[in-house]
């Protein structure tokens, strides 16, 4: 079989695909494996019960059941859902938007693929543009999502060493040199993998440099505001006509519903919708059916505030404590946990690469993600890239506790054997 260039690029097991495969295989080979590698949301009984009840009430109503299962939704997504969401965003944040500024996607991952390639790659004037990541490390799912080579560029962050054993990445404003080779800036806020939440000042700065360069600022709010609201700092939500905000119902507890949401200027939403028609024909109905009624009465915010954020905030603090106990004596730092569902552990001057440590941990029965994978668009020159691990803390507390113990044991061995 002869594959096209597209086929070669997307049909092969490169980068993220091999890693995801490896995580999946490891899990099926060892069912007792402690899974601290993936992005599955934690199981929160109140939230599960809430969605189960919603689903049941949709199924009990023949008209709603038919809309859920028996009709194609439009490629821009359920109009009532978009209208209610626009109202919520106007009500809560004062953003001047209507349902025409909103599109639904089959998961935000697929929206990123379309959006990135709408904004970067081969340009009509013969030039090339990149999606620029102002703070590497960034979300592993962006890697390989571009149709052309060199699709992502990235800047090293500044590292602020905080009191005790914490640190925080910042946008290096001086390193961020804008030119017309960039098609958009993109940040996840809170950031996967680090749990960083860019400050309001950093967002304002990125917004102003993006406007000056006449390119959009993409904010990936998969963990952010207004929902699922897994933010432990006082950061303000941000949107204006030059911002593309991506939301998702996944971390609210519905990754199986595959529902992403794009909030952007009308022309970009129109371009996205046209492309989405080609790729997907229609949007899934499950997410909007479950979430629609939660928008008009702000239940979606209440559930985030009362159940989702506290669950992760508590677990983050617990996991930091366990890491501190078990790693005592090693030269480690943890990125200040400000949101999302991960801790980012920096093992300073680690004598082996984090990939090697990942393999050793897998053999011991705990899965994490090696830090190297997240430095998308960077060259290989920065040692720091090989000294970090992403640790998900969404699993049940006993598993996370046992996983931390194994991580610490292997990290100690790595330093001792050097
Ligand atoms: N963005 C970030 C930062 C993520 O962590 C994820 C998934 O883990 C996604 C986007 C994609 O989420 P989904 O396609 O489930 O909406």
Automatic annotation (TrEMBL):
**Cofactor (UniProt):** pyridoxal 5'-phosphate
A GO CC annotation recorded here is:
cytosol
Which Gene Ontology BP annotations are present? alpha-amino acid metabolic process
Keywords, comma-separated and alphabetical: Aminotransferase, Pyridoxal phosphate, Transferase
List the signal peptide residues: none
For this UniProt entry, the molecular function terms from Gene Ontology, in alphabetical order, are: pyridoxal phosphate binding; valine-pyruvate transaminase activity
Q: Which InterPro entries match?
A: Aminotransferase_I/II_large (IPR004839), Class-I_PLP-dep_aminotransf (IPR050859), PyrdxlP-dep_Trfase (IPR015424), PyrdxlP-dep_Trfase_major (IPR015421)
Q: Which domain of life is it from?
A: Bacteria
Designated name of the protein: Valine--pyruvate transaminase
Q: Which organism is it from?
A: Parahalioglobus pacificus
Upper taxonomic classification of the species? Bacteria, Pseudomonadati, Pseudomonadota, Gammaproteobacteria, Cellvibrionales
Q: Which gene encodes it?
A: avtA
């Amino acid at each position: 079989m002869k594959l096209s260039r597209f086929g070669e690029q997307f049909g092969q097991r490169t980068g993220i695909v091999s890693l995801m495969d490896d995580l999946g295989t490891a899990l099926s080979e060892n069912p007792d494996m402690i899974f601290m590698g993936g992005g599955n949301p934690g199981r929160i009984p109140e939230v599960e019960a809430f969605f189960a009840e919603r689903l049941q009430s949709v199924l009990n109503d023949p008209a709603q059941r038919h809309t859920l299962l028996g009709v194609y939704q439009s490629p821009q997504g359920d109009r009532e859902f978009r209208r209610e969401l626009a109202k919520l965003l106007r009500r809560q944040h004062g953003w001047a938007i209507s349902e025409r500024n909103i599109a639904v996607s089959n998961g935000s991952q697929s929206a990123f693929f379309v959006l990135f390639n709408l904004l970067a790659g081969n340009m009509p004037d013969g030039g090339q543009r990149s999606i620029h990541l102002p703070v590497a490390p960034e979300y592993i799912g962006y890697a390989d999502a571009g149709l052309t080579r060199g699709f992502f560029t990235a800047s090293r962050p500044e590292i602020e060493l905080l009191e005790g054993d914490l640190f925080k990445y910042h946008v290096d404003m001086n390193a961020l040199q804008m030119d017309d080779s960039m098609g958009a800036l993109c940040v996840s806020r809170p950031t996967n993998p680090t749990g960083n939440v860019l400050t309001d000042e950093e967002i304002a700065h990125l917004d102003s440099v993006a406007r000056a360069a006449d390119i959009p600022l993409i904010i990936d709010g998969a963990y952010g505001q207004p929902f699922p609201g897994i933010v432990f700092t006082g950061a303000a939500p941000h949107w204006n006509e030059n911002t593309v905000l991506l939301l998702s119902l996944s971390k609210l507890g519905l990754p199986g519903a595959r529902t992403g949401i794009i909030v952007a200027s009308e022309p970009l939403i129109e371009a996205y919708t046209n492309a989405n028609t080609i790729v997907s024909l229609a949007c899934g109905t499950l997410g909007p059916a479950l979430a629609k009624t939660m928008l008009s009465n702000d239940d979606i915010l209440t559930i985030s505030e009362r159940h989702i954020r506290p669950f992760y905030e508590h677990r983050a603090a617990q996991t930091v404590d366990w890491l501190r106990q078990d790693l005592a004596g090693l030269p480690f730092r943890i990125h200040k946990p400000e949101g999302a569902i991960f801790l980012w552990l920096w093992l300073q001057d680690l004598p082996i690469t984090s990939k090697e440590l990942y393999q050793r941990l897998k053999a011991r029965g705990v899965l994490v993600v090696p830090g190297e994978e997240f430095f998308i668009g960077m060259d290989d020159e920065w040692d720091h890239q090989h000294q970090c691990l992403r640790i998900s803390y969404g699993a049940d507390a006993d598993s996370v506790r046992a996983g931390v113990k194994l991580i610490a044991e292997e990290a100690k061995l790595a330093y001792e054997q050097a």
